[in-house]
Specification:
- Chains A, B: This is TetR/AcrR family transcriptional regulator.
- Chains A, B: InterPro entries: Homeodomain-like_sf, HTH-type_TetR-like_transc_reg, HTH_TetR.
- Chains A, B: Pfam families: TetR_N.
- Chains A, B: Keywords: DNA-binding, Transcription, Transcription regulation.
- 2 copies of one chain form a homodimer.
- Chain A contains 11 helices and no strands.
- Chain A is mainly alpha-helical and 195 residues long.
- Chain A folds into 2 domains: 44 residues, Arc Repressor Mutant, subunit A; 118 residues.
- The longest helix of chain A has 19 residues.
- Chain A binds a DNA duplex (18 and 18 nucleotides) through helix 3.
DNA sequence: GTCTATATCGAGATAGAC
DNA sequence: GTCTATCTCGATATAGAC
């Protein structure tokens, strides 16, 4: 199925040709490292071993590529949000979601920084409706459907700590498993979750 | 004086003409909003009401402007680091430093995101020796001079949480005082500091 | 689906007058 | 200290052949 329970169109269900997927994969890696503004179509084309014109044949504008890449990555969280919403207990729902978010963030360290901080992605997340809806749904679960200031600050601290810690050069030499464990311990303590 | 106890040259002591200061102030605001790559010299010139050539007369390259802006902002933390190092008790030293860092981060919300996440600033912080030395000194105090994995993860979580929370759109409508209090409560709990 | 070639624009940067 | 004018390069983007 391509729609969620709330009627929203699932992210990542846009049909893509193999050539389009190759563009998105190449663009993802470059954008994660250099940011959107720092990544040119020439760099993407070079990474693929083709010319700029070939890339333009797949996507009409650079914006479409950025949207495509963002959509592809956010899609990995769709299942986590769905699973969390299926839980009846809000605390357990948060636990389920947080575990998945931490896993995803650790597995994709470089991209998380860009997703959370690149000025162009930020603007995109605010202006592109499917992204807005998804983010809003995700943070809704994180806040446990209560709109207290404390809940919002906790959710923001959580996402900031994850995003910030994961890309801090201080932690470059810490392996994924250790980092994941430390982050889970931290988030569990911060957000008063069940073990 | 322009050197620290450890012999390092203090950041922010570079002599600047008034015209240079005007450039840095204009550049700071633009870079904070659009990132380094997203800020052109034309944008800086327009914001100042002069031409590009006038800007180039003050700084030979865009890189020098970026270095200048970064130096100017990091300089606001020099006093905090000095005060912290003057404390004999490591726990109290961290407390002093954290308080100042939180204050600075809250007061300069948009810039903190760029400082921590812009790819070009990141590279600069790693390559420009004065910046490397300062950052290293700052994190040294944060870690309390013990090199355990836990201390490093805590320091990284701290800086990530501050940076991430401060610019999260979720918290845009929370006033500075409330945000500062929430961050202090969080950091105190996270890093096992005295109240 | 990919190519060569090209158009157009804006970027960083410089020369020299005032 | 600022200006006009200009250079060069690389960016996004398009046209049309294979």
């Amino acid at each position: 199925m391509t729609t969620t329970d709330s009627g929203r169109r699932r992210l990542g269900t846009t049909p893509r040709t193999p050539a389009q997927k190759r563009v998105l994969v190449a663009a993802l890696e470059l954008i994660a490292e250099h940011g959107v503004s720092g990544t040119s179509l020439q760099m993407i084309a070079d990474a693929m071993g083709v010319t700029k014109a070939a890339v333009y044949h797949q996507f009409k504008t650079k914006d479409e590529i950025v949207v495509g890449v963002t959509e592809m990555e956010l899609a990995t969280l769709e299942d986590a949000v769905a699973a969390a919403k299926a839980e009846s207990d809000p605390a357990r729902a948060r636990k389920v979601l947080l575990t998945q978010v931490v896993d995803m963030a650790v597995a994709r360290r470089p991209w998380v920084r860009t997703l959370q901080n690149d000025p162009i992605i930020i603007r995109l997340l605010g202006e592109h409706e499917p992204f807005r809806d998804f983010i809003s749904e995700l943070f809704g679960v994180l806040q446990g459907d209560e709109d207290s200031t404390t809940a919002r600050v906790s959710a923001a601290l959580f996402s900031g700590a994850i995003g910030g810690a994961i890309i801090n050069p201080l932690l470059d030499d810490i392996d994924d498993a250790t980092l994941r464990a430390a982050l889970m311990q931290f988030t569990t303590r911060m957000m008063n979750l069940p073990d």
